[in-house]
TrEMBL record:
PROSITE patterns: TPR (PS50005). This is SH3b domain-containing protein. TPR repeats lie at residues 57-90. The keyword Thylakoid does not apply.
Length: 251
């Protein structure tokens, strides 16, 4: 009888421990740590969830806030960028990212875009890859409905159904294309964030090469090429140089 009671108590304790370690509990604990201004501890809790494979806009956004308050600018920018990948139109994330970027010393500004380039970027970022995929499903059902009406209910509805078929087909192709584009951007590892301060960009992938310019923590770069140890990066203003790959974290 005592063994049975001991077993039940142990099982209950184990179940309680598992319950205490649920992702929602960890997220709540991190939020409470942030509220009490324990920013480094909060960031560690958020990072724990991210390392476990959880992907959520609120998780990345809160992690970015915690890292920023803990003065880890590179990690803050990285998490804000990840949040925007999942929710491109989130104004709070965009505002915080812009605010942090303005505080990075000598952070170059991107070359001005032509109006149609800006329009294209705005259009593609209306939704995430999942959002465009949902839109394509909606338009596929509308296309099917228009086809059914056109072929099985001829008469006055035929012209409207024909227009619906053409419009549905065009919109389906567009939304599928946007979903594929956004998904490819998500898989793209050519963008990265500088995670260390005062990183010297070299003229060649060699420690003894000439210094070209200096990168600051939090700067966003494009990775153009790499060797086993060095990555060739490009700033938004077009400058290129080689840095040790462990100084950056790909998005």
């Amino acid at each position: 009888m005592r063994k049975l009671i001991f077993f039940l108590v142990t099982l209950l304790g184990f179940a309680t421990a598992l319950q205490a370690q649920t992702p929602q509990t960890t997220f709540t604990e991190a939020n409470e740590l942030f509220r009490t201004k324990s920013y480094s501890a909060a960031a560690a809790k958020y990072q724990q969830l991210i390392d476990q494979g959880y992907r959520d806009k609120a998780l990345y956004y809160n992690a970015g806030n915690a890292y920023y308050k803990a003065n880890h600018i590179g990690a803050a920018v990285y998490n804000y960028e990840k949040a925007l990948q999942l929710s491109p139109r989130d104004e709070a994330t965009r505002h915080n990212l812009d605010m942090v970027n303005q505080q990075i010393p000598n952070n170059p500004e991107a070359l001005p875009l032509l109006f149609f380039q800006q329009w294209w970027i705005t259009f593609t970022q209306l939704f995430s890859a999942n959002g465009w995929a949902v839109m394509s499903i909606v338009f596929s059902w509308l296309l099917v409905a228009a086809i059914i009406v056109f072929f099985f209910y001829p008469g006055r509805r035929a012209p409207a159904a024909r227009i619906g078929m053409y419009a549905g087909a065009v919109l389906l192709v567009i939304t599928l294309g946007m979903a594929a584009l956004r998904y490819s951007e998500h898989l793209d590892t050519s963008s990265a964030i500088v995670m260390n301060a005062a990183v010297k960009a070299k003229a060649a992938p060699d420690a003894g090469a000439k210094d070209m310019f200096e990168l600051q923590e939090g700067m966003k770069v494009a990775v153009l090429d790499h060797t086993q140890e060095y990555c060739k990066v490009q700033l938004v203003d077009g400058k290129t140089g080689w840095i040790a790959c462990d100084n950056i974290k790909t998005l």
